[in-house]
Amino acid sequence: MKSHVRTLQIAFTYIGTIVGAGFATGQEILRFFTRYGHWAVLTILFSTVLFIWLGTKMMIIARRVQAESYEDFNRHLFGERAGRSISLFTMIILIGVNSIMLAGAGAIFQEHLGMPYQAGLLLTILGSYLLLKRGISGILQINSLVVPLMLTLSLIIIFNTLGVPGAERFLFLPTDHSFFGAWMSPLLYTAFNLGMAQAVLVPLARHTNDEQALLRGGILGGIGIGFLLLAAHFAMSSQMPGILQYEIPMGTIAIRLGPVVQSIYLLLIFMEIFSTFVADIYGVSVQLQQRLPVAPVLVTPLLMLICYVFSQFGFSSLLSIFYPIFGAVSLVWVIMLLRAPMSPPPADPPGMDGKGITIVAVKPVIRITRK
């Protein structure tokens, strides 16, 4: 039973780490898949296979090489010098993304809840700090709450879309984009998201003793990501091409389902922002603890302070420069992951039988009595 629970926790965390706010709003799916029309279903299936294969492989290798952080993992893939450089660049991108996540949380409080923008930022930071005190278990718990809610909402959206005229259009949508662009898009999408997700998936794997749970969790997580991609694509295809004009495409789908579902969707977007923020902060904190001569208890508050400062000014212009570069680096990273051999499982500690069971040797006691 414990193994099955751990499998679900890993799967939910994998899904929640990939499915960030850009996914929840629908923009990522629209940009990487739906706009490619009739190719989208096949490219989503291709991306799903990559998520199952590469995500699982990354976690198993991370466990076998005992990688404490994604920097350890990158040093294993690229070597000492290149691995440190790639990890440093990844950290900069993650801090930028976290700053935008924090700004998005503030905007939700301001625009939809009628609360001050700064209150949204501070409440998000406080909640994240309290959750991060629980370590990796806190990340598992928040995703075990958010992801089932997201899967349930996706099912509601699918059943509602079935009754909409043009629901079958997801199979026949025309597109002006090239065949090459359509098939490069899922590769770039998978590479970018796995490159970001390594911040939490690597330490998660390191703290998982059961390799079979990692294997099953990676497979279930990849399938779940594929299901969510297909559900959103199915719903948005029925509204093409008009849905292209909206900043939050999935928001228009939620509005059609009534005020209750719309409120749940709004809560879901915030929870996705919150869970992604928590996971990324945790991953970067683990790396910074290896790099900085600072007490570990100070690293997380310092990192949150940096994100808070950047969230005041916006970070979109800087990320517009970094994102294409990081996309290219992620593609190289995925190629190295594809080529990486599977390391042998780590040796069990003395006194373990390979299944986590302690072996106790009992010596016979011979008592000699003298008459």
Topology diagram in text:
Blueprint: H1 2-18, H2 21-25, H3 27-32, H4 40-64, H5 70-78, H6 80-112, H7 117-132, H8 136-161, H9 179-206, H10 211-237, H11 249-256, H12 259-291, H13 296-313, H14 316-339
Helix pairs in contact: 1-8, 1-9, 1-10, 4-9, 4-10, 5-6, 6-7, 6-12, 6-13, 6-14, 7-12, 7-13, 8-10, 8-12, 9-12, 9-14, 11-12, 12-13
Give a short synopsis of this structure:
The chain is 74% helix and 0% strand. With 371 residues, it is an all-alpha fold.
3D architecture notes:
The structure is a single chain. This protein has 371 residues and is an all-alpha fold. The protein has one domain: Up-down Bundle (Amino acid/polyamine transporter I). Helix 1 (2-18) packs across helix 10, helix 4 (40-64) runs parallel beside helix 9 (179-206) and helix 6 packs across helix 13 (296-313). The chain contains 14 helices and no strands.
**What is the β-strand count?**
0
- What is the CATH fold-level name? Amino acid/polyamine transporter I
Q: Under the CATH scheme, which architecture would be assigned?
A: Up-down Bundle
Query: What would you give as the CATH superfamily?
Result: Amino acid/polyamine transporter I
Q: Determine the N-to-C terminus distance.
A: 57 Å
Largest sheet data:
none
Global geometry:
globular
Number of domains: 1
Rounded to an integer in angstroms, the radius of gyration calculated over CA atoms is 23 Å
How many DSSP helices?
14
Output the helix-strand order: HHHHHHHHHHHHHH
Level-1 CATH class name = Mainly Alpha
Structural class determined from secondary elements: mainly alpha
Mean pLDDT across the residues is 78
Poorly predicted segments: 352-369
Helix content: over 70%
Strand content: under 5%
